[in-house]
Amino acid sequence: MSQLVVKAKALANKVVVAARPQLEEFWKYAKVELSPPMPADFQKLKKTAETAKNASKKDVKGQLKKSGIGQVTVSEAWLNFLVTVEVITWFYMGEVIGRRHFVGYKV
Questions:
Q1: String of b and e for 28-60 (b: at least 16 CB within 10 Å)?
Q2: How far apart are alpha carbons 98 and 90 in whole angstroms?
Q3: For residue 106, what are the CA distances in angstroms to 7, 66, 77, 84, 99?
Q4: pLDDT in tens, the chain (107 residues)
Q5: Which residues are within 8 A (CB) of 106 and not within 5 positions of it... i.e. 6 or more apart?
Q6: Cα 80 to chain center, whole Å?
Q7: Given this model, what pLDDT does residue 1 score?
Q8: For an engineered disulfide with 41, which of 3, 7, 37, 88 has Cβ 3.0 to 4.6 Å away?
Q9: Phi, psi (degrees; rounded to nearest 5) at 38
């Protein structure tokens, strides 16, 4: 029995030695990434959001022209509509299958 305890301690020591570099790296990143935000972070986030908002207002018309929404043919629009209807139909059929009842849930 004592040999089993000695072997278990030796194995545990090997595991600790092998895992130490990975755990040190994990803790290094965990201290940075999992810490709560500081007040300066909120100011930086607010400034970034305002910049993005102003940039998006300026570029909306340019993006519509670049995306080619006005260049869609009737057949492409009809095909897009049919694909959308198919996706929605499969979603609702999945809901019915998941409920195992056509209308509402069995209680």
A1: eeeeeeeeeeeeeeeeeeeeeeeeeeeeeeeee
A2: 12
A3: 57, 50, 40, 29, 8
A4: 788 888 888 888 888 888 888 889 999 998 888 888 888 889 999 999 988 888 776 666 666 666 666 778 899 999 999 999 999 999 989 988 888 777 766 65
A5: 99, 100
A6: 26
A7: 75
A8: 37
A9: -95, 160
State the CB neighbour count (10 A cutoff) for residue 72.
Answer: 13
Q: In whole angstroms, what is the distance from residue 95 CA to residue 104 CA?
A: 10
Alpha carbons 102 and 26: distance in angstroms, whole number: 49
- Widest CA span in the chain: 82
Contact 24, 18 (CB under 8 A): no
Side-chain half-sphere of 17: how many Cα atoms within 13 Å? 6
pTM metric for this prediction = 0.36
